[in-house]
Request: fold
Amino acid sequence: MVHRWQSNATTATTGPSLQESSAQEIFVFGPFRLDASQRRIEKDGNPVQLSARAFDLLLTLIRHAGEVVSKGDLIARTWPGSSVDDNSLRVHIAALRKALGDGNAGAKYLSTVSGQGYCFVGSAAIPPQNQPAPTKPVRAHNLPAHPWQMVGREQTIQDISERLKAQRFITVVGPGGIGKTTVAVSAGHALLAEFAGQVHFVSLGETRDAALVPAIAASSLGLRARSDDPSNNLVAFLRDRRMLLILDCCEHVVDAAAALAERLYQEAPQLHIMATSRELLRVEGEHTYRLSPLTSPPENAVLTAESAIAYPSIKLFVERAAAAGGGFGLTDSNASDVGNLCCRLNGIPLAIELTAGHVTAYGVKAMVQLLDKHFNLLWEGRRTALPRHRTLRATIEWSYDLLSGPERVVLNQLSVFVGSFTADAARAIAGSDATSDDTTMAALDNLVAKSMLALNQGSQSIRYRLADATRAYAQEKLAASTDAEIVPLRHASYFRDLLEKTADEPNEGLSSMADQFGDIRGALAWCFSDRGDRRTGVGLAAAAIPLFFKLSLFTECQLWVTRAIEALHETGGSVRHDLALHAALASARMLTGQIDELGIGNLDRAVRLAETMGDVAGQIRLIGRLHLLQLLVGNFDDALATARRGEAIALASSDSVGVARMRMLLGTSCHYLGEVAASRSYVEAALSHPGLEGDSRGGLTSDYPRRPQITLARILWLEGHPDQATATARQAISDVIAINHPTILCIALPWAFGVFLWNGDVGVCEEHIDRLLVETRKHNLATLQTVGDAMKGIALLGRGESDTGLAMLNGSVKKLQSQRYGAAAGLCVPLAEALAATGRGDEALDILDQAIARGRRRNFMVEMPDMLRARAEVLIRKDNPDYLEAERSLAQSLDLARHQGALGFELRTAIGLAGLLQRRGRRSEARDVLAPVYGRFTEGFNTPVLKAASELLAELASPSSGSLAAS
Reply:
């Protein structure tokens, strides 16, 4: 039906042909918006040119939408007082149809009622009362396109929308094909403003594995499931958000969907949930909305075209029949037969649409006879079928029986596809060894023509798709046929081969494969089922690894890779697959925060397999991953040995880029070990190779654009060049941001953060920290997210927000330590300083003592001088200061910093020691400690550290400066 907005104010009609007065009326249908008072019609915001007569005809018809307006009435209203024949009316109606695109791409607005007149049959949404209908939602959402041609569900949408606001959890229940998804999507669009654009749609129709329901829901929200229960991450994300979550097509995974919905309802109090299912979820908080069939006339009712079009089921039939082409029109002679058809179909929209698609081929009366006959034949004696399946099943079976033998075979075989598919995919799966491509393509064309297969001709390629109900029916037929085993195997093999081909063009190839992931997931599920082919599954899992990582589906990657590894031995899997699977398992675990020896063992196995294969490039790539994981675990000596191993392999193979990459790793290892000069030598050697930055073989390693520059910035600060260090770090981060790759920023920023922290200038990168936190949560980069939380805590402490900052930093450090994050000791310095500042000196001392012991045990020496300095500062700030032990720690720090060549840390320690000596009345010693260190600096005099040193030296030089006597 058409919806009208009418304001309280009325204005006189300005059109010369329209004789009735007009209030300010706005009609919205399809992409059109008609303003009666302004005599203006727009399509998608652009004006549509209509003659005055055509506009008056449209306005008259739309005011009487759903009613037949006689030719005489139309002529009298449009040409008042004139003598005009029917031909003029037909000319203007034809022009109106052309302007509206009536009959194009399924659009239908005007219907000719033979011998009577014309009827407006379009449908539309109600525009807001106080503003024009918006063309865009308030905020981004992932709802499918608004179903503009929906018929007979306007009140349903309004009822569901109102109930959702009050009841929070609604399950729309009804049989297959009744339009549950259409209603849910329409309600979602209607509620966009209510939820400030936060409406998210989760389709569960493309998974067979109930265990994946939480991961699919997380993925639809832009989240990536962790290694633990993804529902935990969903709850954490949704707990404080006001949002509408639509869980569509729950019936085949009802237990998992019910468990997830109940938990989200209980733990996210502002979340509203709308589910669609063929059965209730039966969980706490659920309210039911049973979706009724479209209203149909009584059986054998005598109808005219005018009375018939008032029934929504008939209106839908007429629209779909007209969209199918062939010039179908509702007349007095066929109205009763159409009514009988819709009655026999029980007003189920999908059944009506399937039937309407054949009306021009068979005629309405013949279709009624065929449908009646097949109902009797199909359901006689089948009392075990669920009642809600019978009508739709009969409709689909009737359509199926109209197909030829080859068409049925092809349809059955195509049911293996989960989503849309290309003609190439259809040719690879459908038919038999004796079937030609021409036969398969002819069957495809016929299936499209007979409305059993949908055709979507996009800008890139033509794609086909089975309706879910049709697919389910055809799958039953496939399961009972001799093709039941071979078709799923062809399907899995096709996608395995397709994924292997994308290895040569990973960027474009993987992008094109992303929308076929449902089929890949379905193929994997079949391969590892009881009836599947595990050998094919191993190859498919290995080939799908790059796609898993591109989509950040790390948890799901672990699932399939683990199953493939278990099947390796029983299938005699290849060394190539063994290597790829173990490497992927380690990397996926690492990215989801599982930093442990198991991952190191998997990567070490992969390196050895690459060596067995003689794959030098693979060894170098995998050594990069192994080195990174060893650093994260805290095995710093092992990481150095791994980098040296990689350097030897690269040198032996004369791989100059590989040598540069390995020297970058050597530089990183030396940096962690506190060997500043060696670290700089290796990093500069790596930077001297022009091809290092452009090398794309790094994959999931510690290499990324501008990493050498950030490492160099850290070295420059340690060597006493704070200005150069800051400038280098800032430029590197700017370059990384320009790349616009969120994951790279999440890896790069924590590495650069040390420079700003040491320089006392963390505020300059707080904006980047906020972005890091958003991206790490979005992609579930668990460890990096915790590091980001620690960085944010430090930034908050710098802004004086002590309570919040300390709590965030303390929690993050504890979490990193529990995850065995090797560099967590460096974060203990700002944590201990913050604790000491709040009077928790004993706790601060305990944290530092443990960090120092852990650092010495693991040879994490880069920040050992600063940890010793911080320990002394805590001892001095205690209620009972231990000056002697503090001086001892400062002396150890000073000696170690000098030995390392870390002038930056040496100055920080010298300031602390000079201050202690001053406090103890040893001013001359204090000057002798601080002045030589300060004098070695040539820059950075405006940084907080050098300013503090300068001020302290000035105090020490003043004869009037006070001191505390030794106690």
User: Anything to note?
Assistant: The mean pLDDT is 83. The longest strand covers residues 3-11. Residues 214 and 230 are 6 Å apart (CA to CA). Residues 154-290 form a domain with the Rossmann fold fold (CATH 3.40.50.300).
